[in-house]
Specification:
This protein is an all-alpha fold. The protein is built from 11 helices and no strands. The longest helix has 22 residues. The chain is globular. The two termini are 27 Å apart.
C-alpha cells in the first residue's frame, strides 16, 4: 500500500483515539487504544483507496478534515486551536466512519481483513491482529473505542458504502 496515505491514516487514527479515549488512565491503555485505532484506520484507508490513482486523487482533493466529525461527536462546533488545525485537515470522514464500523463489528472487521489479504497477500492478517483478535487487555483499554452504541453516529455516516466496498448487502454473519 502507498506510504502516501500515512498522513491521512495518522490524523484519522489520532482523531479516533481522542474521540474515544481509554477509560483507564495510563500510558499503556492509551497506547493500546492508539494501536487499535491505527489498525482500524489503516484497514479502512486501504479499502477506501485501493489503487495508487485513488491515493493520488485524495491527496490532490484533500481528505476533508474533522469539522463535521467534531460536531457529530462533541455536539458543538468548536474551532481547533492553531496547534490542532494542521493535523485535523488530514482527517478523512469516510475512513473514520469505516474504521468505526470495523471496530464495533468484529465479523465485519474479519471480512475486511479477508478482502485486504486477497488483494495484498498473506502478510496482512498479522498486521491487523489487534483489530480482529484483540486480547482482553486490549478490549478493556478500548472499551469506548469499540462500543457499538457509542460508535453508531460515526459508523452510520458511511456504513452503506463500506458494505458496498466489501460486496456485502448488510450485516456480516460470523
Amino acid at each position: 500500500m502507498s506510504a502516501a496515505l500515512s498522513p491521512i491514516i495518522r490524523a484519522t487514527a489520532h482523531w479516533l483515539a481522542n474521540a474515544y479515549p481509554a477509560p483507564a488512565d495510563g500510558a499503556l491503555s492509551r497506547a493500546l487504544v492508539q494501536a487499535q485505532a491505527d489498525q482500524a484506520v489503516t484497514a479502512a484507508a486501504w479499502l477506501r483507496y485501493p489503487t495508487p490513482v485513488d491515493t493520488d486523487l485524495v491527496l490532490i482533493a484533500g481528505p476533508g478534515g474533522s469539522s463535521r466529525l467534531d460536531v457529530l461527536i462533541a455536539g458543538n462546533a468548536t474551532a481547533p486551536g492553531a496547534e490542532d488545525h494542521a493535523w485535523r485537515t488530514w482527517v478523512d470522514e469516510v475512513v473514520a466512519s469505516w474504521a468505526a464500523c470495523l471496530l464495533g463489528e468484529p465479523p465485519l472487521a474479519a471480512k475486511a481483513v479477508d478482502v485486504l489479504v486477497s488483494r495484498n497477500g498473506p502478510a496482512a492478517p498479522d498486521h491487523f491482529r489487534r483489530l480482529t483478535s484483540p486480547s482482553e487487555r486490549e478490549l478493556d483499554a478500548a472499551a469506548l473505542l469499540r462500543h457499538p452504541d457509542l460508535l453508531a453516529p460515526l459508523a452510520e455516516l458511511h456504513r452503506r458504502s463500506l458494505h458496498e466496498a466489501l460486496s456485502t448487502s448488510g450485516a456480516v454473519t460470523p
